[in-house]
Write a structure and sequence with these properties.
This protein is of the alpha/beta class and 262 residues long. Helix content is 38%, strand content 23%. Helix 3 crosses helix 4 and helix 5 crosses helix 6.
């Protein structure tokens, strides 16, 4: 059975440069099919909690599901996390998304007019800006995104210090990273950018039992978004929507329907 499943997809290493730093991941292609070119989905991970690359956190399984549906999927490690070079910052992450979208232009099998983002938590936070600022991105699926980041500086310093001690992020200087987080989170706040994505489609997804980001944030984002837009509240889901099989199957079905309209 495993060999049959692998025949349906093709996995290649992803290695690109983002502002002089190497970021790595995987590209998962559909196996032999009818299409010569395929739509592309860039998967953006959230703030890491364990010192492992995305390939070992279940994202490869997600990318493989997309590839089996005739979609090219890219997963990558944001700058400053395990698997890539550079240093963590919100703005660096936004620049990384653009670098990955740039790279899609080099993939012969990619249908460049059908590129979208599937993003989670902090990765979703930066993706609103990425989609608004880059019309090559034709749709955005945001999962568990904050509408606004309002962490007190001491609380933020404590959280980043804990992440550093676990080896899940790298920074040059903790104090400057805290200051930069405050600046970047205001500049790239989704509420400033979500209204500028239209007429491209936005699907906002949130867990009704999200224990980290209130479901109220999803309603705030939806209120600021212009059509075409859709809000999906998964009442039984928590923050880690990606680990909820039923939720992800529903999200993937909705995303495939969006792709059919492009």
């Amino acid at each position: 059975m495993l060999n049959r499943e692998l025949e349906k997809i093709k996995i290649e290493n992803l290695e690109i440069e983002a502002n002089g730093f190497r970021i790595t991941g995987k590209i998962v292609f559909p196996g032999k099919g009818k299409e010569e070119r395929y739509p592309v989905v860039v998967v953006c991970h959230g703030f890491p909690v364990t010192p492992e690359p995305v390939e070992k956190k279940g994202y490869l399984d997600l990318a493989s599901k997309l590839a089996k549906k005739q979609v090219i999927a890219l997963i990558f490690n944001f700058r400053g996390t395990v698997g890539s070079e550079g240093y963590f910052s919100i703005k660096n992450w936004a620049e990384d998304v653009r670098s990955v979208v740039d790279f899609i232009g080099e993939i012969p099998e990619a249908k460049k007019e059908s590129v979208g983002l599937l993003s989670f938590s902090l990765g979703a936070y930066v993706s609103f800006y990425s989609a608004a600022a880059d019309d090559r991105v034709k749709f955005l699926v945001s999962c568990s995104s904050p509408a606004k980041l309002d962490l007190h500086e001491e609380k933020l310093k404590s959280r980043l210090s804990e992440a550093l001690s676990k080896g899940v992020i790298r920074v040059r200087n903790l104090k400057e990273t805290v200051n930069q987080w405050v600046r970047d989170s205001k500049e790239l706040c989704p509420l400033n950018w979500i209204g500028k994505i239209s007429p491209r489609h936005v699907l906002i997804v949130h867990g009704g039992n999200d224990e980290i980001i209130s479901v109220k944030d999803a309603y705030k984002l939806y209120a600021e978004c212009r059509y075409p837009k859709e809000l999906l509240i998964l009442e039984e889901a928590g923050h880690k929507i990606r680990r909820n099989k039923l939720a992800m199957n529903l999200i993937l079905r909705k995303m495939l329907n969006i792709l059919k309209k492009l």
